[in-house]
Design goal:
With 1247 residues, the protein is an alpha/beta fold.
């Protein structure tokens, strides 16, 4: 029987579904259609009440996200019945004008889903403590009522100490009260300061810009205590050391709207749609106005989809490609012809015309030192700071000492002359530009591109090439120009010069040519030639609007500084720096705290005591996690074939020791004794503490802690981590952290360095310590790898639950955080958290600490006279110990521990008495302090009556904004007028339009506010223009903060010569087989186990980039992310590598090397090049991490296969732009040179 055509049947999946839907009649009255698809209700609009209720809300609050991408996006947060229901992008940013797309709407999927974390299963709702520690402490309190004594009884007992340290990361976190958690943390701090010294206490919290008050509150507590704040920018390897080397500034880059102004854009190692999602539209939209977009990446990245051309070099070989492009540009725009704009730019704004001596080295000549006024003799040598006043020729061939060098910057006699004004002088770029130059000489230059000779693989692939330069004699010295050396380095042929030169672009044997780079990178020579030509041609025709947008893809290599310098050379030789739409851009910039001066006053506690203890994060973790014991990398294995033996018989760890002892880099703990006790000893001996320390170092009774990092007195004892996830994200050498710093189980597979290869200047203890750290205290709003290994976990408020400030390099606005809800459960803001700890610490310090004198070893500082501590960058070993010259400055600071909390919540007197110094400009906020007292109120009782109140997060926000030139026009104008005195150039007009403007916290809560142009930064927003770095330098003749005052191609420090890196050069990725006897990349072999007998394994390069499916290092533990990423850790590999080891897509694999083991699923994709695998970073070990066959433990995270390696050039200090400042210079936490071995494992995994 045929069914009636109008018969209606339930449109469901079957009887079970029918039954479930039918039960709905008990929940909601109404008539249901026969197909069970519709519900009919009576009563007006009640039928759509569900939908109207879903999108109803009680209030909308403006806030932002304090996230490490520093996108700094403004969001509307919707709240109903006290619950955050959803968020949406704000659309009321100040306009950027009619000639550009707007910034709005800004955001990314991460931001749109953030409220999930407020109520997620991973939310930390209560304080937690490790159960073993809780039992020990509660038992100790029964016999030691004083919490400090109770803590001492635990950590001084080896068995008790080992008991709670060994169970870190093995579960057992139990709920505790805030009172107990704060008491234990505070008691531990008091004990450590008293027993070992305040510099044994450290804190790590990255990127202040993402939430300034949250960072500053913790930093302020530690700085008042005398503790150590660890840097993050170098540790993350986001810090390009090349930026200080070239510019004397750290990653000051254009805002993202300036990408739109570029006529030619190369994205080099920066996957913008992934890492800069809110800003990527400026790149994609600019293509519609004719911008050409080129991507350079070894794999097929997301941004390649938007590119007009894709360049795919082998990983880590980018510098060879950039050198060949420079070869083309220099040949066609400087030798075959002189492009007038390029030539003028190089003469005025770079070190190209400066003279460099040629020195003998064995059988030949090598580039030496910059010629200075001191070398000229006579009246020139009598000039103040003559050794730091560099020399060029004028157009008549006469030596000329121009303005603007470092020697002019701080000298009273040179006030008004620190500028780039050359007057009537037109310096020759090349000595050949002078008609009477007749001499030439061969110069020996190092090269690092050769294959090692058979039988001498251990020596590496370095060699020497001889190329000629024109020379003259000046003051008895043979000299040439930086430009002449640059042409020689790039292999640009000029007739009549001696030496080995390429026959043309197609010469594969001569360094610098397009054909030469093709042999290294696999990029076709014709493509390198074309892109080099186009880049320069666009720069010439557009007035400098060619841009390279760089990123972590090229900055995480060991030799990243050489890679970046070759990029920066391209933008400099084409006159693009300091031009809107041109120069180098960066995917995050320096994560800029726009109101930097006010923030610094608060966070460093500079209003109460100076200087702070700020440390280079990479070196701290390198020593604390004992990775130095496994390193043994000979420093001379990195040296140039022309090296003079300065690194002989030394490891890179020895270079760190020398750097610290010379005062180049900070090191905390500094000495092997408590700095409080050192002050007491000095007082008892009737000496100043600094003199006592110098005498004790000289007679050997005192040592640097870095010389014996495994001595118990030199351990870091407390680390506080907030706003960070070190053990799930940035902790290079994760397994070493677990083994030595935490004292728990690890999968370290490496052997310690054998005798004969160990550091020369560090004491070797036969038994490596396990569990150096007494307390790991972490605050977070979600459970992470770090919290799982912590002793105490404090529940932090999220970004929708606090008042705070946010800013970024990527746009010119300051944002506010405003709480949409109060912190739920027992969570607290970072501000309230550190308030509680500071208060309890002050209470407990009575009877244990009192008022003490501390002595801070402060390293030689950038942007101060310290930059002139090493004339000519020449190292001498025959000089006495002089603080501030041949060693760190030794500065006494009084610590009033019982009143620490009172200081923490009020503004101290030094802001008024000493002013606020940023980049050598001191601001005097006399009027601002009066306004702030009126706005915030003053302390009404106690020892600091009358001080401005900083006892709430909102008051701190007001102080930061009031005390910064970018948010207070009066201070900006004041700063520019100070700069005018030093430079003799008019600049105050850049801020005078806003002299009466003061951006308040209420202002930024209403709407994002554009900052004011200020000398705190090198760019200008004046007149509504887009911020681009160094615009003030180029347009107003303000020098760069370098030796010459110009952008540098050439670096003449002794260690730079030793490494062969005076000039931009190509250095391949580290040969881990030669240096550490690891397998060679590409090798395969059959293995006997463990766990996979008979399997084949393959050795590949191992890279850990930002995640494909997220923004920057987004969390991976919500359902959306887990669905995209296959529910846990994955490793991307090429089909070729997968085939070698019998791996199919989604198979479980095991990846292991000397550092550890990872278990992951294989993501086999044609986008990956053969010989390279990716494991995206920041995937916590909290979800779907099975037990590894290789180690028998749970497979690790991405950093289980990495470790820290130090490059000596990153440790240089005390000389011109190569002088340390916090997050400006220091060794990077690079990890891209690592290799790993992969095999298919048993597919039945266990947890």
């Amino acid at each position: 029987m045929t069914p009636h055509v109008n018969a209606i049947h339930p449109a469901t999946d079957g009887p079970l579904a029918d039954t479930l839907l039918g039960m709905g009649r008990f929940l909601r009255k109404g008539e249901v259609s026969a197909d069970l698809r519709s519900l009919f209700l009576e009563g007006g609009r009640s039928g759509d009440v569900f939908y109207r209720d879903r999108w109803a809300h009680d209030k909308v609050v403006r806030s932002t996200h304090g996230v490490n991408c520093t996108g700094s996006c403004s969001w509307k947060v919707y709240v109903k019945d006290g619950i955050i229901t959803w968020e949406a992008q704000q659309t009321d940013y100040p306009t950027v004008g009619p000639d550009s797309p707007e910034y709005e709407p800004r955001g990314c999927p991460r931001g749109a889903a953030f409220s999930w974390y407020t109520y997620s299963p991973t939310r930390v709702r209560f304080p937690y403590i490790r159960d073993t520690l809780a039992e020990l402490y509660r038992e100790a309190k029964r016999t030691h009522p004083d919490p400090v004594d109770a803590w001492a009884s635990i950590v001084e007992d080896p068995e008790k100490s080992r008991a709670y340290k060994s169970v870190r990361g093995k579960g057992g976190l139990i709920r505790t009260t805030w009172d107990e958690a704060v008491e234990i943390a505070s008691a531990a701090h008091v004990y450590t300061v008293k027993q070992y010294g305040p510099d044994r206490v450290a804190g790590f919290s990255p990127i202040p810009a993402m939430s300034m008050v949250s960072h500053g509150a913790g930093a302020r507590f530690l700085n008042l205590l005398g503790g150590t704040i660890l840097s993050f920018y170098d540790w993350y390897a986001d810090l390009p050391v090349a930026s200080p080397q070239v510019f004397g500034d750290q990653t000051d880059v254009p805002e993202s709207a300036d990408w739109w102004n570029a006529g030619y854009l190369i994205m080099w190692g920066s996957n913008v749609p992934v890492t800069r999602t809110p800003d990527a539209h400026f790149m994609t939209e600019a293509r519609y106005r004719g911008q050409k977009v080129v991507t350079v990446s070894p794999d097929y990245t997301d941004n390649t989809k938007f590119a007009d051309e894709w360049v795919a070099p082998h990983p880590g070989t980018d510098a060879a490609l950039a050198l060949s492009m420079g070869h083309v540009i220099l040949t066609e725009h400087y030798v075959h012809k002189r492009t007038p704009r390029f030539e003028d730019y190089m003469q005025r704004y770079t070190d190209s015309p400066y003279l460099v001596t040629l020195d003998e080295n064995g059988e030949g000549l090598v580039p030496g030192k910059f010629l200075t006024a001191e070398d000229l003799g006579g009246e020139h040598a009598a000039l103040p700071r003559a050794a730091f006043k560099t020399v060029m020729m004028d157009q008549f061939g006469t030596p000329f000492v121009p303005n603007g060098s470092l020697g002019h910057r701080f000298t009273a006699e040179d006030e008004g002359q620190w500028n780039l004004d050359l007057g009537d002088v037109v310096p020759p770029l090349s000595l050949r530009d002078l008609d009477d130059t007749t001499e030439a000489a061969e110069v020996l230059l190092p090269r690092f591109d050769l294959a090692p000779e058979v039988g001498s693989e251990h020596a590496g692939g370095a060699g020497v090439i001889a190329r000629g330069v024109p020379v003259r004699r000046v003051a008895g010295k043979l000299v040439t120009t930086v430009f002449d050396l640059l042409l020689a380095q790039y292999g640009v042929t000029r007739e009549g010069l001696p030496g080995e030169w390429p026959t043309g672009y197609d010469d594969t044997s001569s360094p610098g040519t397009p054909a030469w780079q093709e042999e290294i990178t696999s990029v076709p020579a014709v493509q390198a030639i074309r892109i080099g030509r186009e880049f320069a041609d666009n720069a010439e025709r557009s007035g400098g609007r060619s841009m390279i947008l760089m990123g972590a893809g090229t900055n995480h290599w060991f030799h990243s500084d050489t890679i970046y310098r070759t990029f920066l050379a391209l933008t400099t030789m084409t006159g693009c720096q300091g031009v809107n739409g041109g120069g180098w851009a960066h995917y995050v910039g320096q994560e800029k705290v726009r109101p930097i001066t006010g923030y610094s006053q608060y966070a460093t506690a500079g209003d109460w005591n100076r200087p702070p203890r700020q440390h280079i994060g990479t070196a701290f973790w390198y020593l604390a996690s004992d990775q130095w014991r496994y390193d043994g990398l000979p420093a001379d294995a990195l040296a140039s074939p022309l090296a003079r033996g300065k690194f002989a018989d030394r490891t890179t760890a020895d270079c760190l020791v020398e750097s610290v002892k010379r005062g180049w880099m900070p090191a905390y703990p500094t000495f092997n004794r408590n700095p409080l006790d050192l002050c007491d000893e000095a007082e008892a001996a009737g000496k100043e503490p600094a003199a006592h320390i110098v005498d004790s170092l000289t007679d050997g009774s005192l040592e640097y802690a870095v010389e014996d990092p495994d001595a118990p007195e030199n351990f870091p004892r407390i680390v506080t981590i907030w706003r960070a996830n070190v053990l799930g994200s940035s902790g290079k050498g994760n397994e070493y952290f677990l083994k030595h710093l935490l004292g728990t189980d690890s999968a370290v597979r490496a052997s310690e360095t054998p005798e004969g290869s160990r550091p020369r200047d560090m004491r070797w203890r036969d038994e490596a310590p396990r569990g150096k750290l007494d307390l790991l205290l972490t605050a977070d709003f979600r459970m992470t790898s770090t919290t799982l290994f912590s002793d105490i976990v404090l529940p932090a408020a999220t970004w929708y639950e606090k008042f705070d400030l946010s800013s970024t390099d990527m746009h010119p606005f300051v944002h506010a955080f405003t709480p949409a809800i109060n912190p739920p459960w027992q969570t607290r803001t970072d501000f309230d958290m550190f308030s509680a700890i500071a208060e309890r610490f002050s209470e407990l310090s009575i009877g244990h600490l009192g008022v003490r004198r501390d002595i801070v070893a402060s390293p030689l500082q950038h942007d101060t006279v310290d930059a002139m501590a090493t004339p000519h960058g020449t190292l001498r070993d025959d000089l006495p110990l002089i603080p501030g010259q041949t060693m760190a400055k030794l500065i006494v600071v009084e610590r009033d521990y019982p009143n620490l909390f009172q200081k923490w919540k009020s503004l101290g007197p030094l802001t008024d008495q000493l002013g606020m110094t940023t980049k050598a400009i001191t601001y005097r906020p006399d009027k601002e302090l009066k306004k702030l007292a009126h706005l915030n109120g003053t302390v009404t009782s106690g020892p600091f009556t009358g001080a401005v109140r900083l006892d709430t997060d909102k008051r701190v926000c007001e102080a930061i904004l009031m005390l910064s030139g970018t948010t207070n026009g009066r201070l900006a104008v004041q700063g520019f007028k100070e700069l005018e005195k030093r430079t003799g150039q008019k600049m105050a007009h850049l801020a005078e339009d806003h002299e009466g403007t003061h951006i308040t916290f209420t202002d930024v809560q209403v709407q994002p506010r554009s900052v004011i142009t200020s000398p705190e930064w090198s760019g200008s927003e004046h007149g509504g223009r887009r911020y681009t770095a160094f615009a003030i330098n180029v347009e107003h003749l303000k020098p760069w903060h370098t030796l010459t005052g110009r952008q540098h191609f050439y670096l003449d420090h002794d260690w730079m010569e030793e490494l062969g890196e005076n000039l931009p050069t190509f250095r391949p990725p580290l040969d881990m087989h030669r240096l550490f006897d690891d397998p060679k990349v590409g090798t395969t072999k059959r293995i006997a186990g463990p766990g996979a007998p008979g399997q084949t394994e393959v050795t590949v390069r191992y890279l850990t980039p930002h995640s494909k499916w997220s923004i920057h290092s987004e969390y991976q533990d919500n359902l959306f992310m887990l669905s995209l990423s296959r529910g846990g850790p994955t490793i991307w590999m090429s089909p070729q590598d997968a085939e070698k080891v019998g791996v199919r897509d989604n198979d479980w694999i095991e990846s292991y090397n000397r550092n550890g083991v990872v278990v992951a699923r294989a993501n086999v994709s044609h986008r990956m090049p053969e010989g390279t695998v990716y494991m995206y970073h920041a995937k916590d070990r909290t979800v779907d991490v099975p037990i590894a066959e290789t180690s028998g433990q749970r497979g690790g995270i991405h950093n289980s296969l990495t470790r820290i390696l130090l490059k000596p050039s990153h440790l240089i200090g005390g000389y011109a732009q190569l002088t340390w400042a916090f997050n400006y210079l220091g060794p990077t936490g690079n990890q891209r040179d690592e290799i790993t071995t992969i095999r298919r494992r048993d597919q039945e995994v266990e947890y």
